[in-house]
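Q: what sequence does this backbone want?
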């Protein structure tokens, strides 16, 4: 399988330099990351919301090595909040945050990440929107869930992400599916060992359905993070069986992938949120998009051949 190989390459400085230097890279990266600055991303936000779509915004960058870099990441999100305030979109544009970007892996990282993320969550609440904490590799999850629980004491609308390929996730879903919760379910995009995660696609898909059923039958607000047509259909059926109205769950997909499906679901009355990333430190995010779906890798390889 190419996925694990690509994920390993996402940690390679040599591969980073090689791919970053390729002439075609920017053209391909722009498919997934439509801007580097807040000013560049505002027209994208306006265009997508004008089409009836919603967004979750991600400032890309995870390889934080100093507290100063973590503080800069916090400030980048606070700047985003200021621009979203001007747009007056409310919950139509929320934010997604990786705690690694806020210093989680540094010495004293749990406390540092909590201290950095809290003002962003507070600022988001002040303009009528919210934050979802992204899931990263399995070693970070206990810290992420603890921070999520702490934030929800003051900001109960704070969301979190769970990953279907991890063995622990069914238990996490049961714990998180209570009233007022917001939980995004994704398949998972990190290289995880067989001791903690399913390795085969059919196993991950079955786990995804089991976990989605738990969320749909719970009292919280499920967010279905998938581009898989079969899983989308299953999600609609599970929502119907659970008696959920169209505004009691939502679909989420990545910017640049299946854009026609975004519009189709929105036209049918579903809440459809587009995960839209921007920033200069795009490499890790881009490599995981390639690893998630073979079609993305084929698109990149074809571009390298024809344009490189």
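A:
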């Amino acid at each position: 399988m190419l996925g694990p190989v690509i994920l390993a390459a996402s940690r390679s400085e040599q591969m980073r330099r090689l791919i970053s230097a390729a002439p075609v890279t920017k053209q391909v990266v722009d498919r997934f990351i439509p801007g580097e600055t807040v000013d560049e991303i505002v027209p994208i936000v306006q265009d997508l919301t004008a089409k009836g779509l919603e967004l979750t915004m991600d400032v890309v960058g995870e390889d934080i090595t100093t507290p100063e870099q973590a503080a800069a990441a916090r400030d980048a999100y606070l700047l985003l909040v200021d621009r979203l305030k001007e747009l007056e979109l409310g919950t139509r544009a929320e934010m997604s945050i990786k705690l690694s970007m806020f210093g989680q892996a540094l010495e004293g990282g749990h406390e540092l990440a909590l201290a950095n993320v809290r003002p962003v969550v507070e600022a988001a609440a002040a303009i009528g929107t919210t934050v979802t904490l992204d899931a990263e590799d399995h070693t970070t999850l206990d810290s992420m869930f603890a921070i999520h629980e702490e934030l929800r004491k003051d900001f109960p609308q704070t969301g979190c992400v769970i990953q279907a390929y991890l063995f622990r996730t069914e238990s996490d879903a049961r714990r998180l599916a209570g009233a007022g919760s917001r939980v995004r379910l994704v398949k998972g995009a990190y290289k995880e060992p067989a001791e903690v995660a399913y390795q085969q696609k059919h196993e991950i898909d079955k786990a995804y359905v089991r976990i989605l059923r738990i969320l749909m039958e719970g009292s919280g607000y499920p967010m279905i993070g998938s581009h898989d047509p079969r899983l989308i259909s299953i999600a609609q059926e599970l929502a119907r069986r659970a008696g959920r109205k169209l505004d009691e769950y939502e679909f989420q997909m990545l910017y640049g992938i299946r854009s026609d499906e975004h519009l189709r679901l929105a036209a049918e009355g579903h809440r459809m949120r587009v995960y839209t990333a921007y920033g200069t430190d795009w490499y890790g995010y881009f490599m995981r998009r390639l690893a998630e779906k073979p079609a993305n890798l084929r698109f990149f390889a074809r571009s390298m051949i024809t344009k490189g």
